[in-house]
Design goal:
Largest interface: A-B, 40 and 40 residues
Strand content of chain B: under 5%
Number of strands of chain A: 12
CATH topology of the largest domain in chain A: Rossmann fold
Oligomer: heterodimer
Number of strands of chain B: 2
CATH class of the largest domain in chain A: Alpha Beta
Shape of chain A: elongated
Structural class of chain A: alpha/beta
Structural class of chain B: mainly alpha
Largest sheet of chain A: 8 strands, mixed
Strand order of the largest sheet of chain B: 1-2
Shape of chain B: globular
């Protein structure tokens, strides 16, 4: 199942809306022809490059005939409107039809070809087009091209009047429609099939996706808007020349695509702006301009293969980390009272081998109880347990790095389940907890399992909202009920809407009821989510399974029966060496976080498990 | 019905053309087989070689000047090719997308070289004066003696290259690197250096071809585009299974071109060649003389 939020709820909504409004207003600010002309060129390059991305980026088909689609659109407009005398608007509409037809023809020879051969055939096909254009000078004007093509006009109003304002808006409409098309295509089942064919061709074919059909559709989909742009170009500049087949034009369009970043729609749009402005600024330098653009291409490919879009994401990620860091420091310094009121005990920072973490410790009691919270949460989720168990036990909870009021960690080193387990180990040694009982919730459940499996000292182990995994990744879809919101758990950037969804659907919170936890979702370092999930595949799952099946450690599983994520049937059927009461236990009608939603029955159940570990202590 | 003389004339011009194509395409083919990438800067290397030679002939004239120009130009182009490997291909030789990336960087490299030529020598057409004049009578048709000299030198150069690749230690290690890169590295060969040498040799042959074209026709900064497309057709048509496959294909292309130019007209000849190439790719993608595996 694929998580795809509607556009108006994604992170890109506001930036793109603002840019669109600015582009709408631009002609009123800059009324001169030159600015508008430059922007029209930007729009054309943006259409060309972003549509090229369908085949080159998403489809993995190295199609170098892309500018052939543009040229077909250009020449079909020219020939239809000038030589055949068709109405300009009709000729303009005809352009994309012919370019799609050419794309369909082109799909036939490259159906069975791979890699370099696709490049060669598509280049050859473009050259073939060029030769035909040059040789049929009666229709195409030969090497000198066609001039004075008919203009577009609406009821006697020429689009070129008033400093080309009509063409500006027509180009903007084309770009907007093309972008909406690309956005929808990427999220459609066809878009996913196109990407699947690139990423794992044989698997996609085994799942019933036809390679030939997808290649045909990929090429046709990528050729429609370039054809339209070609027709527009002809109507706007009123010239059709064979230069559009040249390597120079190809190199500039390719540089737009590369600078923006392959497999991103928005990257091409930004890069079209940058490259066109750059090439207009350098326009006076002739050959130097081409040399500089070529050097830019080589440098981007070698030094920064992700392109501008990756750079923007990196900057965004840096800002996000800075923001979460500031929130954490602020709360640590000025909101300690709030947390103390909730927990009944103060927290402090403790140094471990994976950086500093914020620890809340009741300090008294012989037997220690450690609580480990889950993804995008904080230690305050366990506040009911602090009040219920602190009289007889030493209760300890801490914020994982990048969560709660702990500082952010190094994403590469500190954000993974092994590191989290080592933090538990360090805390046990540092605080002198002896052999604690370890309780882990959700992601914390895996931390607890990992801690036990690596031989950390403990008297008992309890998990909640966690499915034990014997074989990764095969058991993941069995252990969990797939929902679209699962993808949010490992997603780096959440839009406000996604944060809301994550908090309500994943953790089962209600807004307003748990302000501390609600804040915790906002505070969590996105890289912690991303890294922990990405590195699940490197975790030693068989070691955890061996530990569970050995039955050496008293083990309990306490779930909410309404937990929307874990597959209760799978948890029941898993082979355990020793599980309390013989099977996973359910708490009332709780969801993913029973200890928070139904603290009373949960605490009673946890007491029962502890009583089983220490029967000699009797009445706990 | 055409006469036997005309037929012989067309055939002979095709063969003369084929010799030139063989020289151009071999450089492209050895880079493709050895490095596994397609060098789109090959055409501009031809042009640059021709310009370097033209510059030399400007200061030293006469037959000796031409010979000196050839030697200097080939030497300079060898160095340029050698450097191109380290700038354009080496940075991502182990990258999974090396084929696409190399297309992009060699295209950009071609743009840099072409514009450098434009900056250094300007857009005007130039010609390298041919060192030999005179005509040879052949089946009743007159050919330039120089055309036959070009054919002879081209074939000799290719023969020398083949001898180098087959019978010298350096040449054999280049073939080893082409056939199995990992094994060659395990044997202690400096594969990067061998790859750079390969591009250097390819650039030197390109320079020779460029000088020949420049002394037959005119040279301009962008004149490499057409030879590049011709070499591309030759290499695809013949495949790269052996050193000799593009050479056979070059003669086939040369003859096909001169026949279609005669019967269909000058404008349609390239279209026929491209159609031939697409047909071959569809039916036998590894080329007319190709095998599935690559060797040099």
């Amino acid at each position: 199942m694929k998580y795809a939020p509607p556009f108006h709820r994604s992170n890109g909504f506001w930036p793109i809306t603002i840019i669109f409004v600015l582009l709408l207003a631009l002609p009123f600010v800059f009324t001169d022809t030159y600015t508008r002309h430059t922007m029209i060129l930007v729009f054309i390059y943006a259409i060309l490059a972003s549509n090229w991305d369908i085949s080159l980026g998403y489809g993995g088909i190295v199609n170098f005939a892309h500018l052939g689609f543009f040229a077909i659109g250009l020449y079909s407009y020219g020939i239809a409107s000038k030589v055949l005398g068709v109405d300009p608007w009709l000729a303009f509409m005809l352009a994309p039809v012919l370019s799609v037809a050419f794309a369909a023809l082109l799909a036939i020879p490259i159906l069975r070809l791979e890699g370099i051969y696709v490049i060669l055939v598509t280049i050859a096909a473009t050259q073939l087009l060029l030769q035909i254009v040059v040789s049929q000078s009666a229709f195409t004007g030969g090497t000198s091209g066609m001039v004075l093509l008919p203009r577009l006009s609406i009821a006697d109003y020429r689009l070129s009047s008033d400093n080309r304002i009509g063409y500006y808006y027509l180009a903007l409409v084309l770009l907007s429609v093309s972008t909406v098309f690309l956005y929808k295509l990427e999220r459609s089942s066809l878009g996913r099939a196109i990407k699947a064919m690139r990423d794992n061709k044989y698997y996609a074919m085994a799942r019933g996706t036809s390679e030939g059909r997808i290649r045909l559709l990929t090429l046709c989909a990528s050729s429609f808007f370039p054809g339209l742009a070609g027709g527009f170009y002809g109507a706007y500049l009123r010239v059709a020349s064979p230069d559009v087949f040249g390597l120079g034009f190809l190199t500039i369009t390719l540089s737009v695509l590369l600078l923006g970043g392959i497999s991103t729609i928005w990257g091409s749009l930004i890069a079209a702006f940058v490259i066109t402005i750059l090439s207009q600024i350098l326009g006076d330098y002739g050959s130097w301009r081409n040399i500089i653009i070529a050097v830019v291409i080589i440098s981007v490919v070698i030094l920064y293969p992700g392109g501008l879009f990756a750079a923007i994401q990196e900057i965004w990620g840096g800002l996000n980390r800075l923001k979460t860091r500031i929130i954490a420091s602020y709360r640590r310094m000025f909101r300690a009272g709030e947390r103390r009121a909730a927990m009944g005990f103060a927290d402090r920072l403790m140094r471990t081998r994976h950086g500093e973490v914020s620890v809340c410790d009741t300090r008294t009691g012989d037997q220690a109880l450690i609580f480990i919270h889950g993804n995008s949460s904080c230690k305050e989720v366990f506040r009911h347990q602090f009040s219920a168990f602190s009289d007889r036990f030493r209760v300890v909870a801490f914020d994982l790095p990048g969560h709660g009021v702990s500082p952010n960690g190094d994403p590469e080193v500190h954000y993974n389940v092994e590191a989290y387990a080592q933090i538990v180990d360090d805390l046990v040694a540092e605080l002198g907890l002896g052999k604690p009982i370890v309780f882990g919730w959700s992601l914390g459940g895996y931390v607890a399992l990992e801690y036990a499996a690596t031989g950390g000292p403990l008297a008992g182990l309890a998990i909640c909202g966690t499915s034990p995994i014997a074989k990764y990744p095969d058991d993941m879809p069995r252990g969990y009920v797939p929902t679209p919101h699962m993808e949010l758990a490992g997603k780096r950037f959440h839009s406000p809407h996604e944060k809301y969804n994550y908090a309500t659907h994943t953790i089962g919170m209600k807004k307003g009821l748990e302000p501390l936890l609600w804040q915790a979702v906002w505070r969590t370092d996105g890289q912690a989510r991303e890294q922990v999930f990405a590195k699940l595949k490197t975790l030693d799952w068989p070691r955890q399974t061996r530990m569970l099946r050995s039955g050496d450690i008293p083990f309990a599983m306490i779930n909410g029966p309404l937990d929307p994520f874990i597959n209760h049937g799978y948890c029941r059927q898993f082979t355990y060496g020793d599980i309390w009461q013989g099977k996973p236990q359910n708490v009332g009608d709780a969801g993913h976080a029973p200890f928070l939603e139904k603290p009373e029955p949960f605490n009673a159940m946890l007491r029962g498990f502890i009583a089983r570990i220490f029967p000699e202590k009797g009445q706990l | 019905m055409i006469s036997a003389d005309t037929l012989a004339f067309i055939l002979m011009s095709g063969i003369l053309l084929g010799g030139l194509y063989a020289l151009m395409a071999t450089g492209l083919a050895i880079v493709w087989t050895t490095l596994g990438v397609f060098n789109f800067a090959h055409g501009t290397l031809l042009a640059l070689g021709a310009y370097v030679a033209w510059q030399v002939t400007q200061s030293v004239s006469g037959g000796l000047g031409f010979l000196l120009a050839v030697i200097i130009s080939m030497g300079v182009m060898f160095l340029v090719g050698f450097l191109l490997h380290y700038v354009l291909i080496k940075p991502f030789e182990r990258h999974e997308n090396v084929v696409l990336l190399a297309v992009i960087t060699t295209l950009a490299g071609a743009s840099i070289i072409e514009n450098t030529i434009l900056l250094s020598w300007g857009p005007r057409d130039r010609q390298i004066s041919p060192p030999i004049s005179g005509k040879i009578e052949f089946f009743g048709a007159a050919f330039n003696t120089y055309d036959f000299v070009i054919l002879g030198i081209s074939l000799l150069a290719l023969l020398a290259l083949a001898f180098f690749l087959r019978h010298t230690t350096r040449g054999r290690s280049m073939r080893a690197a082409a056939q199995n890169r990992e094994a060659a590295e395990l044997m202690g060969l400096n594969v990067s250096l061998l790859f750079a040498l390969t591009i250097g040799l390819a650039a030197a042959t390109a320079a020779l071809a460029g000088i020949f074209i420049g002394s037959l026709r005119f040279i301009s900064p962008a004149f490499g585009a057409d030879p590049l497309m011709k070499s591309l057709i030759v290499v695809i048509l013949g495949g790269v299974a052996r050193f000799s496959s593009p050479i056979y294909a070059a003669f086939i292309v040369g003859i096909a071109e001169s026949f279609s130019a005669y019967f269909l007209g000058l404008y349609w000849a390239p279209a026929v060649l491209f159609a031939m190439m697409i047909a071959v790719l569809l039916i036998k993608p590894e080329g007319l003389f190709g095998h599935r595996s690559k060797t040099l």
